[in-house]
Design brief:
Elements: H1 8-14, H2 21-43, E1 48-50, E2 54-57, E3 61-64, H3 66-75, H4 81-97, H5 101-106, H6 109-123, H7 135-150, H8 160-170, H9 175-189, H10 193-198, H11 200-208, E4 214-217, H12 229-233, H13 240-245, H14 265-269, E5 276-279, H15 287-297
Antiparallel strand pairs: 1-2, 2-3, 4-5
Helix pairs in contact: 3-7, 6-9, 7-11, 8-9
């Protein structure tokens, strides 16, 4: 790898705006959604009431976080009809666009962890602790079991997203402790540690969007020059290699891994325009390995 900053080649080739297109759109989405929630309590403009756990938009559209609803069910409390309708709406949405789109396009904590990653890179902090990516699934299971045993929606006691909302509305206080802890964890302890190793919300939405049709694809993977910039910016870099380097094994160019967040950063930083948004069904398998198999079977 060269000494150039990640994405510098894409900026030189495509221009700064195209090399940051999807990042800019994500920030507009994240801050726009956050602003809609804050307009009511801070300015008295109630377009959206509630928070990311449960909201009511324009007094018409209910949205309920299925993960929170599942914990509520585990405690023995069945959500009211409007809440169940909200669950159905959210389930359909993320089943279509990909569950972990929530992580990259909606969750405000993603801005915090991205900021920690940016600063970590600028300070040249390397290495750190290591945890299995499956840890988040164990935490997910424990929050559901803990909710059932305690009768409390357990995750809400420490949920950084809820803490961030409270902190922005009521000012600095204990709620900010959790948000700052997430930032410092990603900065000093483990790069992409919170979202990639610990957060049960991301784990839940990865299960929800496992078969969603909207995906990132690498249709021009033959043009890849191995600059590795896509791996550097991807919050889940392990999902890239099969689609990018799997042609010789008969693997199609679509990233099918459930933990892909569909953030689009690989599209931004690739100077060769290898990546694009596509559908999971548009995933042609290389004919070369198939032909080899057929010859060997004769």
């Amino acid at each position: 790898m060269s000494g150039k900053r990640t994405g510098a080649e894409a900026v030189a080739t495509k221009g700064w705006l195209r090399a940051h297109k999807w990042l800019i759109l994500r920030r507009i989405s994240q801050f726009g959604i956050l602003a809609l929630f804050l307009l009511g309590p801070l300015a008295g403009i109630w377009i959206v009431k509630g928070n990311l756990n449960y909201s009511y938009t324009l007094n018409f559209v209910p949205l309920t976080d299925p993960y929170v609803a599942l914990q509520s069910l585990a405690t023995g409390h069945v959500p009211e009809t409007l809440g169940l309708i909200g669950v159905a709406v959210v389930l359909v949405l993320y089943l279509l666009v990909g569950g972990r789109v929530y992580c990259s396009w909606v969750c405000p904590i993603n801005v915090v962890t991205d900021a920690a990653g940016w600063l970590r890179d600028r300070l040249g902090i390397k290495g750190g602790s290591s945890l299995s990516r499956n840890t988040r699934y164990w935490i997910l299971a424990m929050t559901l079991l803990g909710s059932a045993l305690s009768g409390v929606v357990l995750w809400e006691l420490v949920n950084p997203v809820s803490m961030l909302h409270r902190g922005l509305i009521f000012g600095f206080g204990a709620a900010w402790t959790v948000v700052v802890a997430v930032f410092l964890f990603d900065l000093f302890v483990m790069t992409r540690g919170w979202c990639g190793r610990l957060c049960p919300v991301g784990a839940f939405y990865s299960l929800l969007g496992r078969w969603s049709p909207l995906r990132i694809s690498a249709p021009q993977r033959a043009a890849c020059n191995d600059c590795m910039d896509c791996f550097e910016v991807c919050p889940e870099p392990q999902v890239i290699r099969p689609a990018l380097k799997g042609e010789a094994k008969g693997i199609g160019p679509v990233i099918l891994a459930a933990n892909c967040t569909n953030c689009g950063r690989c599209i931004d930083v690739c100077s060769k325009d290898v990546f694009t948004y596509d559908l999971r069904f548009n995933n042609p398998v290389s004919a070369a390995p198939l032909a080899k198999t057929q010859l060997e079977s004769k």
